[in-house]
Amino acid sequence: MTELDAVKAALKTQAVETPSWAYGNSGTRFKVFAQQGVPRDPREKLADAAKVHEFTGAAPTVALHIPWDKVDDYAALAKHAEELGLRLGTVNSNTFQDDAYKLGSVCHPDAAVRRKALDHLLECVDIMDATGSKDLKLWLADGTNYPGQDDIRARQDRLAEGLAAVYGRLGDDQRLLLEYKLFEPAFYSTDVPDWGTAYAHCLKLGEKAQVVVDTGHHAPGTNIEFIVATLLRERKLGAFDFNSRFYADDDLMAGAADPFQLFRIMYEVVRGGGFTPEIAFMLDQCHNIEAKIPAIIRSVMNVQEATAKALLVDRDALARAQAAGDVLDANAVLMDAYNTDVRPLLAEVREELGLDPDPMGAYRRSGWQEHIVATRVGGTQAGWGA
Ligand code: LRH
Ligand code: MN
Ligand code: MN
Prior knowledge:
With 386 residues, the chain is α/β, with parallel strands linked by helices.
């Protein structure tokens, strides 16, 4: 096999999970802009996700958010996904949209609120049992707004206790994925603000607990690829939430704001042996002003392009330049790969998979957008941003 064939073979295995909520209406706290043809229920979200997979061949799973995707029968929803050529992926918990959670969820000072949050998290594991999902993703909106509002250490103790209870409920093949976020909605202290805190909790919990890196959840200038390299080295990287940011947690299309950063991240993934199904490569974004399905197709393509470039890095030449201390050559090897136009290569990969080489054009020509606009009235909101 030539090196190029190996790159192509790797690209054919790529799977990007799309989030159910990206198909719904969304916005900012200022305004949710309703679009035409938006799904009215989880089944219609899956129908749109199936189109993304049909035209990219690289989006076989869909993440759920509970209760945004609440249904009576989760096994039936999983079966429906299968009929559409999809599988249900990560179950995302939601302990941030209930009045009870004003002062937090599993870190709340009141034991009754902590119990309510824990019950929800345990219910998410029940749902995973029904859907066959492997991963439970926890993002906690817990924190405080004012110094002195609550005891920072006591909140960590409550967090550890809550996480341990969820961890104890996991099946052998299930994982707890802990997502950190620098700030928001709390502004003074956040209970899981960074990878170090998430890592410390996951380390204590055990092998089935791993960290989620959401690319939008860092301070400007943070070297995210360093975090990725470190977590991979410690076998504690569980998943990505890909999206783009200019300022804060903007949730723009992955690879739109800083494609070079996405390349650097994917290079560390490839370098660290992380390009495997063990790591969930998920999108976590919303499309407030752009058409949703094509935006998700574009995002999947952006992840594919960053991955192709990362796979093209001449690692032998890079290792030689690094060992020789040749700073300029080493940097040039990396930049050569980044500056390669991989679009023709990906078009070839798609053709070899029996797909249209141009997923955006194929979607446009498919008539699906016209179909959903004509048949769906009153689309659902993604769940937040109102
Ligand atoms: C929090 C977050 C988390 C949520 C999602 C909707 O900002 O990234 O992953 O579940 O947004
Ligand atoms: Mn996220
Ligand atoms: Mn986020």
